[in-house]
Amino acid sequence: MTTTATPTARASQRARSSGGGAAVGRLIDGAIALFERIPNTLVAFIARFSIAATFWNSGQTKVQGLVVNLVSGEFQLGWPSLSDSALALFQDEYKLPFIPPELAAPMAATAEHVLPLLILIGLGTRFSALALLGMTLVIQIFVYPGAYATHGTWAAVLLYLMSRGPGMWSVDHWLATRHASGR
Fold first, then answer.
1. Contact 63, 110 (CB under 8 A)
2. Residue 119's closest CA among 154, 84, 77?
3. CA–CA separation, 111 vs 133, rounded Å?
4. Which of 16, 31, 115, 147 would disulfide-bridge 128, Cβ 3.0–4.6 Å?
5. For residue 44, what are the contacts with CB-CB under 8 A and spacing of at least 6?
6. Sign of the torsion angle spanned by Cα atoms 158, 163, 167, 172
7. What is the rounded CA–CA span in Å between residue 152 and residue 144?
8. pLDDT per position in the chain (183 positions), as tens?
9. In Å, what is the CA distance from 18 to each residue of 5, 9, 26, 48?
10. Per DSSP, what are the bridge partners of residue 95?
11. What letter would DSSP give residue 95?
12. What radius of gyration, in Å, describes the C-alpha atoms of the chain?
């Protein structure tokens, strides 16, 4: 049976065989081993918090009467309503081809509040990430096609959450362990 070395293993082997050798190879191997010990739960939590904050903050620009910013500590509790500027934004700048602005603006404002909250607490994480990925693709294709670097970063985080899940610090994990122990 033949095995194929990973790119990292090949780099480590090259470092060992290139004269400076064994010490550099051991250093690289040690660093890689340390990186591999970073817990998925920590990465998933940071990914969840970061992407949730990105979409939540965008949603906050579309409503009035409710301000919740965990980072700055700004809170103004009230009943949220769609801001006039949000509707104008969808009428003048976003101009989605298939959805009228009167429908698109409240849908986006709702999605940018509900889905990040679900991702933050880790409930229905994979499906919420899928919905935000769809939203990201719409933004990339129809609204800001030149912002692929930003949208690619969002997509990478959302794809990570879809493929790996929210980690152990989540309602999804708690529900899964309850369900498994109830069998």
1. no
2. 154
3. 12
4. 115
5. 160, 161, 164, 165, 166, 167, 169, 170
6. positive
7. 12
8. 555 566 666 655 655 555 567 889 999 999 999 999 999 999 999 999 999 999 999 999 999 999 998 778 899 999 999 999 999 999 999 989 999 999 999 999 999 999 999 999 999 999 999 999 999 999 999 999 999 999 999 999 999 999 999 999 999 999 999 988 876
9. 18, 14, 13, 42
10. none
11. -
12. 22
Which residue type does 64 have? Answer: Q
For tokens 């603006």, the residue is: 105
DSSP conformation letters of 21-89: HHHHHHHHHHHHHHHHTS-HHHHHHHHHHHHHHHHHHHHHTTEES-EEETTTTEEE-S--EE-HHHHHH
Question: Cβ distance 107 to 89 under 8 Å?
Answer: no
List the structure tokens of 172.
Answer: 């999804």
Q: Output the six-digit token pair for 96.
A: 């989605």
Q: How many angstroms separate the CA atoms of 58 and 60, rounded?
A: 5
What residue has token string 């509707």? 87
